[in-house]
Design brief:
Mean pLDDT: 85
Number of helices: 18
Order of helices and strands: HHHHHHHHHHHHHHHHHH
Low-confidence stretches: none
Number of domains: 2
Helix content: over 70%
CATH topology of the largest domain: Growth Hormone, Chain: A
Largest sheet: none
Distance between the termini: 26 Å
Strand content: under 5%
Radius of gyration: 25 Å
Shape: globular
Length: about 525
Amino acid sequence: MALIKKGSVFTLVGLYILTIPFFNALNVTSYDNSQLLGHFGASTTAFTYSTYIPFFAMLGFLPLGLKIGKQIPMRTMVLWVSFLSIICNTALLFADTIEWFTIWRALLAILSIIGIFVTIIPIVLKYNPAFNMAILYGIVQFILQGSKQLYQYFGTQMTSIHNWTFGIYFLNANFLLAIVLAWIFYRKDVAPMKTVFQFDWRGWLILLFFLTVILFLCAEGQTRNWLSDSKISLAAAFLLVLVGIYLIHVRFTKEPLINPDVYKFPNVVLGSLLFFYTGMMNGTGSIVTGFMTNILGFDSIYVARTHLAILIGLFIAIPLSTYLLFKRIYLATLWITGFACYGLYHIILYFRFYPEIDSSNFFAPFIFKGLAIGFLYPAASLYISEKVPKPLGDSRMMSGVISRAVFASLLGGAILGTFISNMNVQHKTGLSQQLSELNTEARQQLEQNKKVFMLKGLSAWEAQKKAEKLLLNETFQSALMLAYKDIYLVMSALCFFPILILLLFKLGRRPIGSVEVEPIPF
């Protein structure tokens, strides 16, 4: 590996710092949903759409953002994207309805995609020959995953000073810093990857329709009880129709958005499956957040601070996995280690779902989660890029994004919410049936609660009703925790299952091969 000159280290660090605000445009307000819901007074359904739409806007604009990022001079692009991001971000402060808030936030998400591409390109062009792709990608993942946790924490801290608007000011300060860094580190205002602009507009339109249907399923599926509702069934059927239309479209397009030829490479097929699997395993984090806020009563700062333990695992695993990939370690070694860490994360938390648990009990499982991300994400992203020719690079990237972000994280998260609700109802029904005169413990608890309320001055009838309600609330919490335990027990088994497959069939017993395309970190 060629060595980087000492004088360019400062430039390299500056270029990496320049990427951070765009990676985290949507992370600053991650834990402030309750404040936003109260501020706008929107319905739950409207707020659900408001949460999903910016992420789908980001994913939908991703392929066009990649093309634009290569066509316009880099310094001009960074300056304009940063300036427009400040405008869209500031407009959030003046949005008087949830609809306008969603529109400005979606535009901010789109701008962040362009910003990510245009800030990554000079790093890839200037340092890839010296760095080796494994090291380059390891550094990007280190910054991406680490800054996500930090921005969620800092955004929550800023919000706690006054309200959610302080997070907006914090993000604006970051975009102003990006403008300053662009003037310092972009010496020449050129577009080094500029080519004749060709874009699959028809394929992009089909993709947007596809993502719109997925958005509808994510936002409405749980409330409509999925396929038992005719509109959900129709939407699912329409997805299959869109896939068929796209396959017909590909036959008449020279450079389609997602070229099916990319699936002739076995590593792209298996890599997409691995992306889906890791996205699914990582998606259960919302359960822990719900457990902290809804049952344990943690505020947003406490939740964000507790999640910082993930950084410890990331700081250990990503540099170590990057070094091992560079030293040609077997892929199976990293995969087995990552899946084992995800399994330990789920199985430890399985025993943590009980009331009045302290935040220190989340320390160990969150470290294992950070370790799992650090071992699996760089290896998976390099593996799916292995031996893929550059003309199919964008197709490979979109395949991974759709597998992990669309199907696993967004749609999978919505389906997971339904499973939790259904299991919660089953457990609640079972526990409620035990609240009878024959249940000595329940009767004693009811009498004890009734006496407490009577001592507070309530009448016997009022105290009886309060005591019954309190007992039912305790039953609801117990049912919900049992549902959480069921999910995490199943997920721990699913995490250890790939290890068995890798060992039985002796898969991945080789180092990473050649990587020619840029493994853009999504």
